[in-house]
Specification:
Blueprint: H1 3-16, H2 19-40, H3 44-83
Amino acid sequence: MTIQEQAQQLELLADQVPTGIALATKSDLEDLQAQVLGLLGETSTATAIQGSIQLAAQQIDEVAAALENVRLQIRDAAQHHLQG
């Protein structure tokens, strides 16, 4: 495999990093949070659930950032191959 082919393969791999899954999950959690508030109103139970959802959302942000870092590192490796 040539260096050019390796770079192309790395670009394809970078596109496969599942960054969208984390963002979609966060969106689903935000929808869930709104539904919980709608069902329970401003109660202590709703507040506790919302706190858990917010914590999960923060962790998803961290995962999304880590996945984006993986994607960028693979892309950087592809660029490095192209520059020779």
